[in-house]
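testing teh design pipeline on a random one, pls ignore if ur not involved
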């Protein structure tokens, strides 16, 4: 069955896809890794991988989704019937399920912080102990995760246009404005430049193999590629909309927000002489103590938490949507029910992650907590594997005429770029991803 619903226009699509891309990756993971892995050098590397591998993969997913107008599993079936390729879609659905199960745990923490910020129970606390308490309190963490999934299911149940598109239409512009306010505040603090230098001055001596691999993984995660989420989102795009320009806007917005995040966080951190500790605690422990020291700090902290929540939610919508769409297959009635049922199942699956800092703290999988093991499985194995398969699928399984038509590669520059794109997909992306896997297996 063909999809019935479509985005209202190209902007609706761009905002939703950028909403999927911009999330914990850009705001939570990127700043602390960049800060400790060579600053500007890491950023340059991330930029390079984003353009050379991330962008081509994003376009690859777009061509699969838009040409078939079908959700993640049926799209592969339509192009390569009777083969094993639909398993790439199934892999994406499974990856999304696992990813959302722990993504929603962090969403829950943000909700708790936001409620505390509103009720005045955040400022002035011993922040490290508070963070431990929030993530370690079993009932608190689980119910907050439940609330986060409730919001996500509610939006997805409302449909592509009325739910996902309209939520993104408000949340994404608000996110940008809030980020601008925050960044200006941060950059105008005394001594802010030290933070800018820490974040952006390239220190190539810190670029080891780990950092290089991390920059690549981050470029996939951050653009939501490898999961077929972008296949699903682009299947709702009208045929006459330009895919290359849309992809360019999405990549540009994602890079911009990664830059904003670093420029909002580090100048404040340095200006107030706080240690820019590495690790996920940066946002939850360091930032409140930084905001505490500036005038109207509680307001700025509230702004930060709100934008952080918006970014996380808009990514969560896309993760739930791919699963719901792949089962509902265009049936509106089914989709409503499925959004709630699958949202609930994801909540259940996420409970062990939510408890992994409290009740289940002693349980280790491959030497990691349950939360970290799930993150590792998705970010370092499933996502790159999906990306590898998509990079092979598009150039080898799709008809060249279809690709040319989808990308409107008709001018002479267009044709050259098209060939370059195919080369990047056929050779550069697979080789880079395989090198990462070999490194992980300890081959070099
Ligand atoms: N891009 C999101 C982030 O950076 O937080 C994470 C993500 C969402 C990855 C959706 C993959 C995906 F399909």
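output:
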């Amino acid at each position: 069955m063909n999809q019935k619903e479509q985005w209202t226009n190209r902007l609706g699509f761009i905002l939703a896809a950028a909403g999927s891309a911009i999330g914990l990756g850009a705001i939570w993971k990127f700043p602390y890794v960049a800060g400790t892995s060579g600053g500007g050098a890491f950023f340059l590397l991330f930029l390079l991988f984003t353009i050379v591998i991330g962008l081509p993969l994003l376009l690859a997913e777009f061509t699969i989704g838009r040409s078939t107008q079908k959700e993640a599993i049926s799209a592969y079936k339509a192009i390569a019937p009777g083969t094993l390729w639909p398993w790439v879609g199934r892999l994406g659905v499974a990856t999304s399920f696992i990813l959302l199960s722990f993504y929603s745990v962090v969403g829950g923490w943000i909700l708790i912080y936001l409620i505390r910020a509103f009720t005045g129970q955040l400022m002035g606390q011993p922040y490290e102990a508070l963070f431990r308490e929030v993530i370690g309190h079993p009932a608190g963490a689980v119910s907050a995760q439940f609330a986060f999934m409730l919001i996500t299911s509610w939006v997805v149940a409302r449909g592509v246009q009325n739910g996902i598109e309209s939520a993104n239409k408000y949340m994404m512009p608000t996110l940008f404005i809030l980020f601008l306010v925050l960044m200006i505040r941060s950059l105008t603090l005394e001594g802010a430049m030290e933070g800018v230098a820490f974040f952006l001055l390239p220190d190539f001596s810190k670029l080891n193999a780990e950092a290089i691999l991390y920059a690549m993984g981050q470029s996939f995660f951050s653009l939501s590629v490898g999961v077929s989420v972008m296949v699903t989102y682009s299947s709702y795009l009208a045929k006459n909309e330009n895919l290359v320009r849309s992809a360019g806007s999405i990549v540009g917005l994602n890079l911009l927000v990664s830059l904003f995040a670093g420029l909002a966080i580090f100048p404040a951190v340095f200006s107030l002489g706080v240690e820019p500790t590495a690790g996920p605690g940066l946002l939850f422990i360091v930032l409140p103590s930084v905001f505490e020291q500036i005038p109207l700090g509680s307001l700025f902290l509230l702004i930060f938490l709100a934008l952080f929540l918006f970014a996380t939610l808009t990514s969560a919508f896309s993760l739930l949507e791919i699963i719901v769409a792949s089962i509902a297959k265009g049936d509106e009635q089914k989709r409503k029910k499925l959004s709630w049922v699958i949202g609930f199942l994801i909540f259940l699956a996420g409970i062990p992650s939510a408890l992994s800092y409290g009740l289940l703290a002693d349980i280790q999988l491959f030497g990691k907590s349950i939360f970290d093991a799930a993150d590792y499985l998705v970010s370092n194995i499933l996502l790159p594997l999906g990306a590898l398969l998509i990079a092979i699928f598009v150039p080898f399984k799709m008809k060249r005429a279809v690709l040319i038509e989808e990308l409107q590669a008709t001018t002479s520059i267009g044709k050259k770029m098209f060939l370059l794109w195919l080369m990047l997909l056929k050779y550069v992306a697979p080789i880079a991803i395989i090198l990462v896997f070999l490194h992980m297996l300890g081959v070099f």
